[in-house]
Amino acid sequence: MRALNSALLNKSDERARFLRYCIVGVVTAGIYSGMIFTSVVIPIVRPEIATAVVTVVAGAFNFAAHRYFTFIGSRPFGTSVLRYLTLLTINAVLGAAIVAVATLFGASIVTANLLVVALVTISTYFVLDLLVI
Predict the structure, then answer these.
(1) Which pTM was predicted?
(2) Element of type H or E holding 71
């Protein structure tokens, strides 16, 4: 009975952690979208500079939130940051490749990007947990 309770608790913990992961993702998207919208409404800098700054800010929030809220990191901070940046690079290349192949086979850009979001969201959850944070 104790083993069953432990297994159920672990499943519950895992669901809670995945929910936190999703919440962090939604908040990150909100930060990104809000800052981009603001940079369009109040154009202080060129759009490409605004996009770069917003990407860094949203990425930094995402890393910190996952490290201290979602996964509660145990690896050294510097190691986690380098692995996180590597993961972002791999995701960007992989996403571009998926879009290229999917559109080559007739998928719309929207459909191809939705596929990327789904695949990257799910795979990143496990990679963050096992290798990054």
Answers:
(1) 0.85
(2) none
d(CA 93, CA 108): 19
DSSP string, 74-118: -S-HHHHHHHHHHHHHHHHHHHHHHHHHHHHTT--HHHHHHHHHH
Contact 24, 66 (CB under 8 A): yes
What angle separates helix 109-127 from helix 77-104, to the nearest 10 degrees? 150
Do 109 and 99 form a contact (C-beta atoms < 8 A)?
A: yes
24-66 pLDDT per residue, tens: 999 999 999 999 999 999 999 899 999 999 999 999 999 999 9
> Cβ distance 73 to 80 under 8 Å?
yes
Alpha-carbon distance 91 to 107, whole Å?
A: 20
At 85, list the tokens: 């940046």
Q: Are 87 and 104 in contact (CB under 8 A)?
A: no
